[in-house]
Amino acid sequence: MLLKLEDVSKAFKGLMAVHGVSTEVHEGEILGLIGPNGAGKTTLFNLITGVYPPTEGRILFEDKDITRVAPHARCWMGIARTFQLVRPFPELTVLDNAAMGRVYGRDPVKSRSKAEKASVASLEVVGLTARASEKAKSLTLVDRKRLELARALATKPKLLLLDELLAGLNPSEVLTSMELIKSIRDTGITIIMVEHLVKAVFGIADRIVVLSAGELIAQGTPAEIACDQNVIDAYLGKSLRV
Amino acid sequence: MSDFLRIQDVSVAYGDIQALWDVSLNVEEGEIVALIGPNGAGKTTLMRAVAGLNPLRSGSIYLADKALHTLRAYQIAEQGVILVPEGRRLFGGLTVLDNLELGAYPKRARQVRADTLKLVYELFPLLADRRLQRANTMSGGQQQMLAIGRALMGVPRLLMLDEPSLGLGPLVVESIFETIKHMNEQGVTVFLVEQNARQALELANRAYILEQGSIAGTGVAQDLLNDDRVQQAYLGICPAPEA
Questions:
Q1: Which of A1, B17, B37, B97 is the most exposed place for a label (fewest CB within 10 A)?
Q2: Three-state SS annotation for B215-235
Q3: Mean of pLDDT over chain B
Protein backbone atom coordinates (compact mmCIF):
# COMPACT_ATOMS: atom_id res chain seq x y z
CA MET A 1 0.00 0.00 0.00
CA LEU A 2 1.54 3.27 -1.10
CA LEU A 3 -1.00 5.73 0.27
CA LYS A 4 -3.79 5.25 2.74
CA LEU A 5 -6.48 7.70 3.80
CA GLU A 6 -8.21 6.85 7.06
CA ASP A 7 -11.53 8.56 7.64
CA VAL A 8 -10.19 11.90 6.45
CA SER A 9 -12.32 15.03 6.87
CA LYS A 10 -11.67 18.68 6.20
CA ALA A 11 -13.96 21.46 7.34
CA PHE A 12 -13.71 25.10 6.30
CA LYS A 13 -15.54 26.95 9.06
CA GLY A 14 -18.94 25.26 8.92
CA LEU A 15 -18.54 23.66 5.52
CA MET A 16 -17.51 20.00 5.33
CA ALA A 17 -15.50 20.00 2.11
CA VAL A 18 -14.32 16.42 2.60
CA HIS A 19 -16.17 14.09 4.91
CA GLY A 20 -14.97 10.75 6.23
CA VAL A 21 -13.06 9.62 3.15
CA SER A 22 -11.20 6.32 3.42
CA THR A 23 -9.38 4.80 0.49
CA GLU A 24 -6.10 3.23 -0.54
CA VAL A 25 -3.79 3.81 -3.47
CA HIS A 26 -1.86 0.79 -4.70
CA GLU A 27 1.67 0.93 -5.98
CA GLY A 28 1.90 1.25 -9.76
CA GLU A 29 -1.72 2.14 -10.45
CA ILE A 30 -3.38 5.11 -12.04
CA LEU A 31 -6.15 6.28 -9.76
CA GLY A 32 -8.70 8.70 -11.22
CA LEU A 33 -10.38 11.13 -8.83
CA ILE A 34 -13.60 12.50 -10.25
CA GLY A 35 -16.79 14.20 -9.07
CA PRO A 36 -19.08 17.06 -9.97
CA ASN A 37 -18.33 20.71 -9.17
CA GLY A 38 -17.70 21.28 -5.49
CA ALA A 39 -17.29 17.57 -4.74
CA GLY A 40 -14.08 18.15 -2.76
CA LYS A 41 -11.55 16.84 -5.30
CA THR A 42 -9.15 19.74 -4.94
CA THR A 43 -9.47 19.70 -1.16
CA LEU A 44 -8.59 16.01 -1.08
CA PHE A 45 -5.64 16.72 -3.36
CA ASN A 46 -4.46 19.46 -1.02
CA LEU A 47 -4.80 17.12 1.96
CA ILE A 48 -2.65 14.49 0.28
CA THR A 49 0.03 17.00 -0.69
CA GLY A 50 -0.10 18.76 2.68
CA VAL A 51 -1.37 22.21 1.75
CA TYR A 52 -3.39 22.00 4.97
CA PRO A 53 -3.90 19.27 7.56
CA PRO A 54 -7.19 17.38 7.77
CA THR A 55 -9.65 18.33 10.50
CA GLU A 56 -9.93 14.64 11.30
CA GLY A 57 -8.41 11.38 10.15
CA ARG A 58 -4.96 10.12 9.19
CA ILE A 59 -2.93 9.95 6.00
CA LEU A 60 -0.29 7.23 5.63
CA PHE A 61 2.40 7.13 2.96
CA GLU A 62 4.43 3.93 2.81
CA ASP A 63 3.00 3.09 6.24
CA LYS A 64 4.36 6.33 7.73
CA ASP A 65 1.92 8.82 9.24
CA ILE A 66 2.30 12.01 7.18
CA THR A 67 -0.87 13.71 8.43
CA ARG A 68 1.09 16.69 9.80
CA VAL A 69 4.10 16.62 7.47
CA ALA A 70 4.70 19.86 5.52
CA PRO A 71 4.33 19.84 1.71
CA HIS A 72 8.05 20.25 0.94
CA ALA A 73 8.89 17.39 3.31
CA ARG A 74 6.31 15.23 1.55
CA CYS A 75 8.09 16.04 -1.70
CA TRP A 76 11.35 14.79 -0.16
CA MET A 77 9.51 11.59 0.74
CA GLY A 78 8.42 11.12 -2.87
CA ILE A 79 5.07 12.90 -3.31
CA ALA A 80 5.00 15.39 -6.19
CA ARG A 81 2.21 17.24 -7.92
CA THR A 82 1.42 19.39 -10.91
CA PHE A 83 -0.86 22.40 -10.79
CA GLN A 84 -3.83 23.06 -13.03
CA LEU A 85 -2.68 26.60 -13.67
CA VAL A 86 0.90 25.88 -14.62
CA ARG A 87 3.49 28.26 -13.21
CA PRO A 88 6.91 27.77 -14.80
CA PHE A 89 9.57 30.38 -14.14
CA PRO A 90 9.05 32.27 -17.42
CA GLU A 91 12.55 33.75 -17.72
CA LEU A 92 14.37 30.51 -16.95
CA THR A 93 15.12 27.95 -19.61
CA VAL A 94 13.06 24.81 -19.92
CA LEU A 95 15.97 22.80 -18.53
CA ASP A 96 16.49 25.11 -15.55
CA ASN A 97 12.81 24.86 -14.74
CA ALA A 98 13.04 21.09 -14.68
CA ALA A 99 16.29 21.22 -12.70
CA MET A 100 14.44 23.08 -9.98
CA GLY A 101 12.61 19.84 -9.27
CA ARG A 102 15.89 17.97 -8.99
CA VAL A 103 17.28 20.49 -6.49
CA TYR A 104 14.25 20.46 -4.19
CA GLY A 105 12.95 16.92 -4.66
CA ARG A 106 13.62 13.48 -3.22
CA ASP A 107 17.27 12.56 -2.98
CA PRO A 108 18.14 16.14 -4.03
CA VAL A 109 21.16 17.26 -6.00
CA LYS A 110 22.50 20.54 -4.69
CA SER A 111 24.86 21.44 -7.51
CA ARG A 112 23.24 23.29 -10.37
CA SER A 113 25.19 21.60 -13.13
CA LYS A 114 24.52 18.16 -11.70
CA ALA A 115 20.85 18.99 -11.26
CA GLU A 116 20.64 20.09 -14.88
CA LYS A 117 22.35 16.96 -16.07
CA ALA A 118 20.03 14.83 -13.98
CA SER A 119 16.94 16.62 -15.34
CA VAL A 120 17.62 15.95 -18.99
CA ALA A 121 15.95 12.59 -18.58
CA SER A 122 12.67 14.12 -17.35
CA LEU A 123 12.59 16.45 -20.34
CA GLU A 124 13.07 13.43 -22.54
CA VAL A 125 10.11 11.62 -20.96
CA VAL A 126 7.76 14.51 -21.76
CA GLY A 127 9.29 15.20 -25.18
CA LEU A 128 10.81 18.62 -24.50
CA THR A 129 14.47 17.78 -25.10
CA ALA A 130 14.65 19.85 -28.26
CA ARG A 131 13.45 22.94 -26.41
CA ALA A 132 15.68 22.58 -23.35
CA SER A 133 17.53 25.86 -23.87
CA GLU A 134 14.49 27.99 -24.70
CA LYS A 135 12.89 30.25 -22.15
CA ALA A 136 9.79 28.72 -20.57
CA LYS A 137 7.68 31.72 -21.55
CA SER A 138 8.05 30.83 -25.23
CA LEU A 139 6.22 27.50 -24.81
CA THR A 140 2.65 26.84 -25.89
CA LEU A 141 0.12 25.71 -23.28
CA VAL A 142 0.51 22.02 -23.98
CA ASP A 143 4.30 22.33 -23.73
CA ARG A 144 4.03 24.36 -20.53
CA LYS A 145 1.91 21.51 -19.15
CA ARG A 146 4.61 19.05 -20.22
CA LEU A 147 7.21 21.18 -18.49
CA GLU A 148 5.10 21.20 -15.34
CA LEU A 149 5.15 17.42 -15.57
CA ALA A 150 8.92 17.29 -16.20
CA ARG A 151 9.57 19.46 -13.16
CA ALA A 152 7.46 17.13 -11.01
CA LEU A 153 9.22 14.08 -12.47
CA ALA A 154 12.59 15.63 -11.70
CA THR A 155 11.74 15.39 -8.00
CA LYS A 156 11.87 11.59 -8.46
CA PRO A 157 8.40 10.98 -7.07
CA LYS A 158 6.98 7.65 -6.04
CA LEU A 159 3.51 9.16 -6.10
CA LEU A 160 2.62 11.79 -8.68
CA LEU A 161 -0.58 13.83 -8.41
CA LEU A 162 -1.86 15.42 -11.60
CA ASP A 163 -4.29 18.31 -11.21
CA GLU A 164 -6.31 18.78 -14.39
CA LEU A 165 -3.38 18.04 -16.63
CA LEU A 166 -5.73 17.62 -19.61
CA ALA A 167 -7.81 20.77 -19.05
CA GLY A 168 -7.61 23.25 -21.89
CA LEU A 169 -5.94 20.86 -24.32
CA ASN A 170 -7.43 20.07 -27.70
CA PRO A 171 -8.62 16.50 -28.40
CA SER A 172 -5.43 15.31 -30.09
CA GLU A 173 -3.28 16.82 -27.32
CA VAL A 174 -5.51 15.02 -24.80
CA LEU A 175 -4.79 11.70 -26.52
CA THR A 176 -1.02 12.17 -26.60
CA SER A 177 -1.05 13.34 -22.97
CA MET A 178 -3.00 10.23 -21.96
CA GLU A 179 -0.31 8.09 -23.57
CA LEU A 180 2.33 10.11 -21.74
CA ILE A 181 0.62 9.53 -18.39
CA LYS A 182 0.49 5.80 -19.09
CA SER A 183 4.17 5.71 -20.03
CA ILE A 184 5.07 7.48 -16.77
CA ARG A 185 3.08 4.92 -14.82
CA ASP A 186 4.91 2.19 -16.71
CA THR A 187 8.20 3.48 -15.27
CA GLY A 188 6.84 2.54 -11.84
CA ILE A 189 5.40 5.86 -10.66
CA THR A 190 1.99 5.68 -9.04
CA ILE A 191 -0.43 8.32 -10.29
CA ILE A 192 -3.49 10.05 -8.87
CA MET A 193 -5.24 12.27 -11.40
CA VAL A 194 -8.04 14.78 -10.91
CA GLU A 195 -9.85 15.52 -14.14
CA HIS A 196 -13.03 17.12 -15.39
CA LEU A 197 -12.69 15.07 -18.54
CA VAL A 198 -14.27 11.98 -17.09
CA LYS A 199 -14.08 10.06 -20.34
CA ALA A 200 -10.33 10.57 -20.56
CA VAL A 201 -9.90 9.33 -17.00
CA PHE A 202 -11.96 6.26 -17.83
CA GLY A 203 -9.60 5.60 -20.72
CA ILE A 204 -6.45 5.29 -18.62
CA ALA A 205 -7.29 4.81 -14.94
CA ASP A 206 -7.05 1.41 -13.31
CA ARG A 207 -9.42 2.51 -10.58
CA ILE A 208 -11.72 5.46 -10.02
CA VAL A 209 -12.74 7.19 -6.81
CA VAL A 210 -15.87 9.33 -7.05
CA LEU A 211 -16.53 12.19 -4.65
CA SER A 212 -19.82 14.01 -4.36
CA ALA A 213 -20.55 16.75 -1.85
CA GLY A 214 -17.40 15.82 0.07
CA GLU A 215 -18.19 12.13 0.45
CA LEU A 216 -16.76 9.14 -1.30
CA ILE A 217 -19.80 7.72 -3.11
CA ALA A 218 -18.18 5.01 -5.22
CA GLN A 219 -14.85 3.40 -6.08
CA GLY A 220 -14.07 0.74 -8.61
CA THR A 221 -12.96 0.05 -12.15
CA PRO A 222 -14.05 2.48 -14.89
CA ALA A 223 -16.59 -0.07 -16.13
CA GLU A 224 -18.13 -0.37 -12.67
CA ILE A 225 -18.20 3.38 -12.12
CA ALA A 226 -19.80 4.26 -15.47
CA CYS A 227 -22.76 2.05 -14.57
CA ASP A 228 -23.06 3.00 -10.90
CA GLN A 229 -26.47 4.55 -10.23
CA ASN A 230 -25.17 6.79 -7.41
CA VAL A 231 -22.53 8.18 -9.74
CA ILE A 232 -25.01 8.75 -12.56
CA ASP A 233 -27.32 10.60 -10.15
CA ALA A 234 -24.42 12.70 -8.85
CA TYR A 235 -23.52 13.80 -12.34
CA LEU A 236 -26.91 14.25 -13.94
CA GLY A 237 -28.66 15.58 -10.86
CA LYS A 238 -31.73 14.29 -9.16
CA SER A 239 -35.10 14.66 -10.78
CA LEU A 240 -37.59 17.01 -9.13
CA ARG A 241 -40.32 14.55 -10.00
CA VAL A 242 -40.55 11.68 -7.58
CA MET B 1 -41.39 31.16 -36.05
CA SER B 2 -38.00 32.57 -36.86
CA ASP B 3 -34.93 32.29 -34.69
CA PHE B 4 -34.84 34.84 -31.91
CA LEU B 5 -31.35 34.25 -30.55
CA ARG B 6 -29.04 32.85 -33.19
CA ILE B 7 -25.52 31.76 -32.30
CA GLN B 8 -23.50 30.86 -35.38
CA ASP B 9 -20.14 29.05 -35.47
CA VAL B 10 -18.92 30.74 -32.33
CA SER B 11 -15.38 30.06 -31.15
CA VAL B 12 -13.96 31.55 -27.96
CA ALA B 13 -10.45 31.23 -26.54
CA TYR B 14 -8.74 32.37 -23.36
CA GLY B 15 -5.21 33.04 -24.54
CA ASP B 16 -4.05 29.80 -26.10
CA ILE B 17 -6.78 27.75 -24.43
CA GLN B 18 -9.70 27.34 -26.79
CA ALA B 19 -12.95 26.88 -24.88
CA LEU B 20 -15.56 26.79 -27.69
CA TRP B 21 -15.28 25.34 -31.17
CA ASP B 22 -17.79 26.48 -33.82
CA VAL B 23 -20.82 26.38 -31.58
CA SER B 24 -24.17 27.04 -33.25
CA LEU B 25 -27.55 27.07 -31.57
CA ASN B 26 -30.78 28.99 -31.63
CA VAL B 27 -33.50 29.99 -29.21
CA GLU B 28 -36.96 30.86 -30.47
CA GLU B 29 -39.17 33.50 -28.94
CA GLY B 30 -41.12 32.19 -25.95
CA GLU B 31 -38.99 29.10 -25.45
CA ILE B 32 -37.02 27.78 -22.52
CA VAL B 33 -33.82 26.35 -23.94
CA ALA B 34 -31.33 24.59 -21.70
CA LEU B 35 -27.62 24.19 -22.30
CA ILE B 36 -26.36 21.20 -20.37
CA GLY B 37 -23.02 19.46 -20.12
CA PRO B 38 -20.30 18.46 -17.68
CA ASN B 39 -17.92 20.72 -15.83
CA GLY B 40 -15.58 22.60 -18.06
CA ALA B 41 -17.63 22.01 -21.21
CA GLY B 42 -17.81 25.74 -21.94
CA LYS B 43 -21.38 26.52 -20.89
CA THR B 44 -20.57 29.64 -18.90
CA THR B 45 -18.15 30.77 -21.59
CA LEU B 46 -20.92 30.67 -24.19
CA MET B 47 -23.35 32.54 -22.00
CA ARG B 48 -20.78 35.21 -21.24
CA ALA B 49 -20.03 35.47 -24.94
CA VAL B 50 -23.69 36.21 -25.67
CA ALA B 51 -23.69 38.85 -22.92
CA GLY B 52 -20.64 40.49 -24.46
CA LEU B 53 -18.31 39.54 -21.61
CA ASN B 54 -16.11 37.21 -23.67
CA PRO B 55 -14.85 38.34 -27.08
CA LEU B 56 -15.44 35.94 -29.96
CA ARG B 57 -12.51 34.52 -31.86
CA SER B 58 -14.88 33.85 -34.74
CA GLY B 59 -18.60 33.48 -35.41
CA SER B 60 -21.61 35.69 -34.85
CA ILE B 61 -24.52 36.17 -32.48
CA TYR B 62 -27.85 37.75 -33.41
CA LEU B 63 -30.95 38.67 -31.46
CA ALA B 64 -33.93 39.08 -33.77
CA ASP B 65 -31.51 39.77 -36.65
CA LYS B 66 -29.64 42.46 -34.73
CA ALA B 67 -25.95 41.63 -34.42
CA LEU B 68 -24.87 41.38 -30.78
CA HIS B 69 -21.28 40.33 -31.30
CA THR B 70 -20.30 43.81 -32.44
CA LEU B 71 -21.77 45.45 -29.35
CA ARG B 72 -20.35 46.11 -25.88
CA ALA B 73 -21.83 44.33 -22.87
CA TYR B 74 -23.90 47.35 -21.75
CA GLN B 75 -25.26 47.78 -25.26
CA ILE B 76 -26.28 44.13 -25.30
CA ALA B 77 -28.12 44.64 -22.00
CA GLU B 78 -29.74 47.66 -23.68
CA GLN B 79 -31.05 45.25 -26.32
CA GLY B 80 -32.82 43.30 -23.59
CA VAL B 81 -30.37 40.45 -23.22
CA ILE B 82 -29.94 40.11 -19.47
CA LEU B 83 -27.67 37.65 -17.68
CA VAL B 84 -28.12 36.25 -14.20
CA PRO B 85 -24.49 35.31 -13.62
CA GLU B 86 -23.22 32.21 -11.91
CA GLY B 87 -22.82 32.87 -8.22
CA ARG B 88 -25.35 35.73 -8.49
CA ARG B 89 -22.84 38.61 -8.18
CA LEU B 90 -25.12 40.82 -6.16
CA PHE B 91 -24.03 44.09 -4.61
CA GLY B 92 -23.81 42.50 -1.17
CA GLY B 93 -23.52 45.66 0.88
CA LEU B 94 -26.48 47.32 -0.81
CA THR B 95 -30.11 46.78 0.04
CA VAL B 96 -32.50 44.58 -1.88
CA LEU B 97 -34.17 47.66 -3.32
CA ASP B 98 -30.83 49.19 -4.39
CA ASN B 99 -29.92 45.98 -6.17
CA LEU B 100 -33.26 45.89 -7.95
CA GLU B 101 -33.05 49.52 -9.02
CA LEU B 102 -29.54 48.99 -10.39
CA GLY B 103 -31.02 46.23 -12.54
CA ALA B 104 -33.15 48.86 -14.25
CA TYR B 105 -30.06 50.69 -15.49
CA PRO B 106 -30.66 50.15 -19.24
CA LYS B 107 -32.51 53.15 -20.74
CA ARG B 108 -35.41 51.07 -21.94
CA ALA B 109 -35.86 49.73 -18.40
CA ARG B 110 -35.44 53.02 -16.55
CA GLN B 111 -38.60 54.51 -18.02
CA VAL B 112 -40.77 51.69 -16.68
CA ARG B 113 -38.90 51.10 -13.46
CA ALA B 114 -41.77 51.69 -11.04
CA ASP B 115 -44.09 49.35 -12.92
CA THR B 116 -41.47 46.65 -13.25
CA LEU B 117 -40.68 46.87 -9.57
CA LYS B 118 -44.33 46.22 -8.79
CA LEU B 119 -44.27 43.13 -11.01
CA VAL B 120 -41.08 41.85 -9.40
CA TYR B 121 -42.58 42.30 -5.94
CA GLU B 122 -45.65 40.36 -7.06
CA LEU B 123 -43.45 37.56 -8.32
CA PHE B 124 -41.24 37.60 -5.21
CA PRO B 125 -43.27 38.98 -2.27
CA LEU B 126 -40.27 38.17 -0.10
CA LEU B 127 -38.20 40.84 -1.85
CA ALA B 128 -40.83 43.44 -1.02
CA ASP B 129 -40.79 42.42 2.65
CA ARG B 130 -37.00 42.63 2.74
CA ARG B 131 -36.48 45.59 0.46
CA LEU B 132 -34.38 47.49 3.03
CA GLN B 133 -32.30 44.50 4.08
CA ARG B 134 -28.71 44.20 2.90
CA ALA B 135 -28.37 41.61 0.15
CA ASN B 136 -25.52 39.71 1.79
CA THR B 137 -27.56 39.04 4.91
CA MET B 138 -30.04 36.86 3.02
CA SER B 139 -29.93 33.12 2.43
CA GLY B 140 -28.60 31.65 -0.80
CA GLY B 141 -32.06 30.96 -2.15
CA GLN B 142 -33.26 34.47 -1.34
CA GLN B 143 -30.18 35.91 -3.00
CA GLN B 144 -30.87 33.88 -6.11
CA MET B 145 -34.41 35.30 -6.18
CA LEU B 146 -32.95 38.78 -5.85
CA ALA B 147 -30.52 38.09 -8.69
CA ILE B 148 -33.42 37.01 -10.90
CA GLY B 149 -35.48 39.98 -9.75
CA ARG B 150 -32.62 42.32 -10.59
CA ALA B 151 -32.43 40.80 -14.07
CA LEU B 152 -36.19 41.25 -14.54
CA MET B 153 -35.79 44.94 -13.65
CA GLY B 154 -33.80 45.18 -16.89
CA VAL B 155 -36.98 44.15 -18.77
CA PRO B 156 -35.39 41.20 -20.53
CA ARG B 157 -36.44 40.02 -23.94
CA LEU B 158 -34.02 37.17 -23.42
CA LEU B 159 -33.25 36.11 -19.87
CA MET B 160 -30.07 34.08 -19.46
CA LEU B 161 -29.56 32.11 -16.25
CA ASP B 162 -26.18 30.60 -15.45
CA GLU B 163 -26.48 27.70 -12.97
CA PRO B 164 -29.38 29.11 -10.94
CA SER B 165 -29.50 25.93 -8.83
CA LEU B 166 -25.83 26.02 -7.82
CA GLY B 167 -25.35 25.52 -4.09
CA LEU B 168 -29.05 25.58 -3.29
CA GLY B 169 -31.10 22.94 -1.48
CA PRO B 170 -33.68 20.84 -3.36
CA LEU B 171 -36.74 22.75 -2.11
CA VAL B 172 -35.25 26.12 -3.00
CA VAL B 173 -34.25 24.82 -6.42
CA GLU B 174 -37.79 23.65 -7.01
CA SER B 175 -39.19 27.07 -6.18
CA ILE B 176 -36.59 28.84 -8.37
CA PHE B 177 -37.44 26.55 -11.27
CA GLU B 178 -41.17 27.17 -10.78
CA THR B 179 -40.47 30.88 -10.90
CA ILE B 180 -38.55 30.49 -14.15
CA LYS B 181 -41.45 28.59 -15.62
CA HIS B 182 -43.88 31.23 -14.45
CA MET B 183 -41.80 34.05 -15.96
CA ASN B 184 -41.65 32.14 -19.20
CA GLU B 185 -45.43 31.82 -19.23
CA GLN B 186 -45.54 35.60 -18.86
CA GLY B 187 -43.64 35.85 -22.13
CA VAL B 188 -39.95 35.94 -21.17
CA THR B 189 -37.70 33.83 -23.41
CA VAL B 190 -35.26 31.85 -21.28
CA PHE B 191 -31.80 30.50 -22.06
CA LEU B 192 -30.59 28.39 -19.15
CA VAL B 193 -27.26 26.82 -18.29
CA GLU B 194 -27.39 23.99 -15.82
CA GLN B 195 -25.13 21.29 -14.56
CA ASN B 196 -28.13 19.52 -13.07
CA ALA B 197 -29.17 18.04 -16.38
CA ARG B 198 -32.26 16.19 -15.28
CA GLN B 199 -33.89 19.19 -13.63
CA ALA B 200 -33.02 21.42 -16.55
CA LEU B 201 -34.54 18.95 -19.02
CA GLU B 202 -37.73 18.75 -16.99
CA LEU B 203 -38.07 22.52 -17.20
CA ALA B 204 -36.96 23.27 -20.75
CA ASN B 205 -38.68 22.91 -24.12
CA ARG B 206 -35.47 22.07 -25.94
CA ALA B 207 -31.88 21.51 -24.95
CA TYR B 208 -28.37 21.37 -26.31
CA ILE B 209 -25.60 19.17 -24.93
CA LEU B 210 -22.23 20.88 -24.80
CA GLU B 211 -19.18 18.68 -24.44
CA GLN B 212 -15.56 19.82 -24.52
CA GLY B 213 -16.50 23.04 -26.25
CA SER B 214 -18.66 21.56 -29.00
CA ILE B 215 -22.35 20.78 -29.35
CA ALA B 216 -22.67 17.02 -28.86
CA GLY B 217 -26.42 16.78 -29.40
CA THR B 218 -29.72 18.59 -29.32
CA GLY B 219 -33.37 17.74 -29.11
CA VAL B 220 -36.70 18.14 -27.37
CA ALA B 221 -35.98 18.24 -23.66
CA GLN B 222 -38.44 15.45 -22.81
CA ASP B 223 -36.76 13.14 -25.31
CA LEU B 224 -33.29 13.94 -24.03
CA LEU B 225 -34.32 12.88 -20.52
CA ASN B 226 -34.11 9.30 -21.75
CA ASP B 227 -31.36 9.82 -24.30
CA ASP B 228 -28.10 7.94 -23.73
CA ARG B 229 -26.18 10.82 -25.27
CA VAL B 230 -26.77 12.92 -22.14
CA GLN B 231 -25.28 10.32 -19.82
CA GLN B 232 -22.49 9.72 -22.31
CA ALA B 233 -21.54 13.38 -22.32
CA TYR B 234 -21.05 13.26 -18.57
CA LEU B 235 -19.78 9.77 -17.91
CA GLY B 236 -19.11 8.01 -21.18
CA ILE B 237 -20.68 4.78 -22.23
CA CYS B 238 -21.83 2.21 -19.69
CA PRO B 239 -20.07 -0.16 -19.58
CA ALA B 240 -16.92 1.83 -20.27
CA PRO B 241 -14.85 0.47 -23.12
CA GLU B 242 -11.69 -1.35 -22.12
CA ALA B 243 -8.66 0.92 -22.05
A1: A1
A2: EEEEEEHHHHCCCHHHHHHHH
A3: 92
